[in-house]
Amino acid sequence: MSTPIALSVLCALAFLGLFFTLSLYSRRRAVALLEENSLCDGTGSDRESFAEYYRPMTRILDPREFELSKALAGVGSAESSRFRASRIAAFRSYLNDMRLDFNRIEFKMRYLMLAASQDQAELVVGLNRIKSSFQMQLIRVEVQLLLFRFGWSAVDVEPLVIMLEQLEGPLLRRPSASAANA
């Protein structure tokens, strides 16, 4: 065997070994993350339901509450502005948590789809559709929140909460990884 061929074979074997090692590590890490998250409640969080956790977002920036706060005796414009700013900050925090939870649910769904049968292939198309819709709705809410800061728009987060309900539904109906192994 000539030196260039032997070197090529050796490089190919090294590449295959590295690929196999990284694949095995990624799979073990994904399984460990899923098992760690399934210990909480099957959806990957200590929340009973993501949708119920985010339901208050639909009311946190309600204009009626801001009007009621302005009408209270002894509440000046400075206090009203602080109240509004704190509500916006709370909403922003909810929105960041929602983005993280959506990514967590999506990761689990994609992992579960690896074990799906051929007749469940439409799940991939559905998940991709929900993900793109969620991203578009998230951008819409971000723009609405920016406009809301200036008093120009209301913020409607209900479509995002509904999408989380749709996405977490299949996870709640599936047995957790630890229950399936028992």
Written overview of the protein:
The protein has eight helices and no strands. It has helices spanning 3-38, 50-54, 57-60, 63-71, 77-114, 122-149, 158-173, 177-181. The protein is elongated, with a radius of gyration of 24 Å. The protein starts with a helix and ends with a helix. Residues 39-44 and 175-182 have low confidence and may be disordered.
Strand content: under 5%
User: Which shape, going by the Cα principal axes?
Assistant: elongated
Structural class: mainly alpha
Question: Largest sheet at a glance?
Answer: none
SSE pattern:
HHHHHHHH
Number of strands: 0
Q: Summarize model confidence as the mean pLDDT.
A: 77
Unreliable runs: 39-44, 175-182
Keywords:
182 residues, mainly alpha, 0% strand, elongated, disordered C terminus
